Hints:
Oligomer: single chain
Number of helices: 10
Strand order of the largest sheet: 1-2
Mean pLDDT: 81
Amino acid sequence: MTLRYVGRSIGHRSLGRRVVLGLAMTAAALMAQPAAAQFFWSPPDFSTPPLTDAEATTALGLPGATAAEVKAGLVWNLRAALNVAALQCQFEPTLLSISNYNAMIAHHDAELDAAQTTLLGYFQRTVGKGKPGQMASDQYGTRIYSGYSTVQAQRGFCQAAALVGRQAIFAQRGTLNDVARNGLGSIKKSLVLAGEQFYGDPGRSYSLTLPSFDPKCWKKGKMLPACQLAWNQKIGVQP
Length: 239
């Protein structure tokens, strides 16, 4: 048997409209606010000014690079950073690190291919044609990947990389170098451990004080009084 809703009063219609309007206003308010941080109540400030060509040649390790080679280096470093994030940041799925990286590769494939070719040309020019240049290019790729890997500062890195990754997937084709110029500084800054702006990083700054495990301090599994007293003094326990 099929049930049909037949009667619909003005009161129900008005209530429905108010509910829809309320939901729309709530959604608009949420959309107007910045994205909530996954790891911090008040995230560390990773903002940096855009990299100039001179700053980029130093930050990217490409001395003597031309303007075109700097653009290529920016693009390739951004690819490396977001690739590392896709591998290291899976512990927080809401960052979308994997899907952001895959979307960036698909959306900016032409610029990425051109960047790789330009960078190879840089090393062929500065190191040597043929095998020397290719080897230097391969070593450079390995080096920059390692440079974006972090353990202690992983939370900040993952947050910063996710933000730049979202910018990358919405950028127009051919402008990935601009995203990198504006965002790589913040990603590099995030590699230094930083905690809450208000509360610091109490969890990671905690240190455990252990008693002495010198055999002289123990007898039949129990700590001797002198060593117990020394340990109490270390941890601030009053006698």
